[in-house]
Write a structure and sequence with these properties.
CATH class: Alpha Beta
Number of strands: 5
Structural class: alpha+beta
Number of domains: 1
Shape: globular
CATH architecture: 3-Layer(aba) Sandwich
Strand content: 15-25%
Distance between the termini: 62 Å
Oligomer: single chain
């Protein structure tokens, strides 16, 4: 299956389930394997759109790593409680949309203010794949001017 951004290499239906651990909400799959170019090693806010609609907003320190080692290749440990359910959710949702023939697009904006921008975009678009409203943003304390520090 091909999409403008994602090339789905394989569908992974079965994760070797550990009988002693419970799957997280998104751990059952199915999952796919995909990647984006390896040279987008920038801190950024990114948006995943499906057929022009914002479905997910996130932030990262390294966009290529986030997609190629996180969303694009599901590690079995992330399927269990205590893993990273967001990776499973995003991967599975991308697979579902591509199988339906949807146009999946990835946009990113390089910024060091990624936590603040992520929160603003989530609040603006309210994407259905986001489970939270973004990271907690702490504003820096401003020093009040006085006769000693003006």
């Amino acid at each position: 299956m091909k999409n403008r951004l994602f090339t789905v290499e394989s569908i992974i239906r079965n994760i070797n389930y550990n009988k002693d651990k419970r799957l997280n909400k998104y751990g059952k799959g199915p999952f796919c394997k995909f990647k984006i170019p390896d040279n987008i090693n920038r801190a950024a806010v990114y948006i995943i759109k499906v057929n022009g609609k914002v479905k997910y907003v996130g932030e990262c320190e390294d966009l290529s790593h986030r997609f190629n080692s996180g969303y694009g290749q599901i590690s079995p440990r992330n399927c269990f409680i205590g893993g990273q359910p967001t990776n499973c959710k995003i991967n599975s949702n991308i697979l579902k949309e591509i199988k339906k023939g949807a146009k999946v697009q990835l946009y990113f904006y390089e910024t060091e203010e990624r936590f603040l921008l992520e929160k603003e975009l989530i609040n603006k678009y309210k994407p259905e794949w986001n489970g939270t409203s973004g990271k907690v943003v702490r504003k820096s304390k401003r020093v009040k001017k006085n006769k000693y520090n003006t």
